[in-house]
Amino acid sequence: MKVRSRVWKFGDNVDTDQIIPARYLNTSDPKELAKHVMEDSQWPNFAAAHQPGEIIVAGKNFGSGSSREHAPIAIKHAMVPVVIAKSFARIFFRNSINIGLAIIEAPQAVDEINHMDEIEVDLQEGLINNITTGKTFSATKFPPELMEILKAGGLMEYARERLSKIAGTDKTGMSEG
Description:
Blueprint: E1 2-9, H1 16-19, H2 30-34, H3 46-49, E2 55-58, H4 70-77, E3 82-85, H5 90-99, E4 102-105, H6 107-112, E5 118-122, E6 127-130, E7 136-138, H7 144-152, H8 155-167
Parallel strand pairs: 1-2, 2-3, 3-4
Antiparallel strand pairs: 1-5, 5-6, 6-7
């Protein structure tokens, strides 16, 4: 699974209130949340200015704060394919995997990637290639089980696929035989 795009770079301690401000939590509509993603961060125009497929790179402790799933949902539905950070808040990390948002830790890459650099991320191999500078970095590689969850689009989709195979049914729950 490879992703290639430009980077929006953020600093340390980007919390869930910066990712999706609490004033927008009166909805759980992912498309509406995506319209306000990163609105209270250092790039308040992110939702309107970024292009689908562009990547977020951030410092340490990305996603700290509340345990709400709205934050990774807003990022995913803003069409951000991957978030790279020095480190993630643990609950944000788990929520991201559960909803199918790819996130990887790569401290050295974060230090050397600049805002609007073009990079290519190979999630399966745990590699980040900065196309702009020509440098390549190692990232935390996902175990195969987590890659399967990401490929399925999140934990619920992964569980549905597994259960339908076990039960011999298709995705609608109808018997295949």
